[in-house]
Amino acid sequence: MDIEVGITGNLRIALEVLALLAVTYLSAKVFAKLMQKSLKKMSKRMHVDLTQFLLFQRLIILFIYIVGLAIAGTRIPGMSAVWVSLFASAGILAVVVGFAAQATFSNIIAGVFIAMFEPFKVGDKITILNEYGTVEDITLRHTVVRTWDEKRVIIPNAKMGDESIINYSFKNPRILGSFDVGISYDSDIDLARKIMVEEAFAHPSLLQNVRGGDNSFLKKEELVKVRLVELADSSQKLRLYYWASDQTAATLMKFDLLESIKKRFDAEGVEIPFPHRTIVYRKDLEKPRKLKPAPNK
């Protein structure tokens, strides 16, 4: 009889624990759904910072899981004594957990700082670790960057905090694009400059509503500029400056303009040189003449 009672009691406790875990899981899922609906409604009425919203949502979900697991643990016989002993040895536990989960905690803290100070946000275009892409998600542990070729780079938040980041979306996404084109010394610089400027103005992605602003490379009335930047060994290097709406547009414009400028150069006689190398065979060299010794006086 006592064995049957014990089995029945243990089964009841197990069912209670499973029920509490199920309720915890469902509560977290329901909360996440409600938060997503709230985000959609609030977005229609006001500006909502998606990065801070997602971080707040995940912190609350983490809190729900911690509370649910703690309550479920108290239903297990003997766990109360375990909790007391854990609190009694909190100092030792803190040291052990600190060493074991140092990286995890540093990532969580870094994620909170990212949400607070916002060096970048969800949707920003950045370059980090030589990867250019869009910030797709910021979790409590890591940041997801979607690159231009649809790769997902998963970077721990602590690493994001330590690395230098180029944020192309910070304050203003517009960018001053530039690239170099070399022409031969026999080619006309003014003609080459004219062609490059005309091709830039003809491109549909050129940002028209920016008049240089406070940029030191362009005057306020200029949208496009070509400068001679170097007299190299075999070419005169011209650099084209142009405004684009963002880094992606600037890169695509560069590819298009390189092709169109090359075709115009070919049609109008502007030469793009290539290095020349003169090879002299040793056998073709004249033998050095021997000097006659000076006569003795």
Descriptive report:
It is built from eight helices and eight strands, in the order αααααββββαββαββα. It has 297 residues and is of the alpha+beta class. It folds into three domains: 2-88; 120-167, Roll (SH3 type barrels); 175-268, Alpha-Beta Plaits (2-Layer Sandwich). Strands 4-3-2-1-5 form a five-stranded antiparallel beta sheet. Strands 6-8-7 form a three-stranded antiparallel beta sheet, covered by helices on one side. The relative contact order is 0.08.
* Residue share in β-strands: 15-25%
Structural class: alpha+beta
- The helix/strand series, from N terminus to C terminus, equals HHHHHEEEEHEEHEEH
What's the architecture of the largest domain, going by CATH? Answer: 2-Layer Sandwich
Number of helices: 8
The end-to-end distance, rounded to whole angstroms, is 138 Å
Low-confidence stretches: none
Beta strand count: 8
Side-by-side strand order of the widest sheet = 4-3-2-1-5
What does the main sheet amount to? 5 strands, antiparallel
CATH topology group of the largest domain: Alpha-Beta Plaits
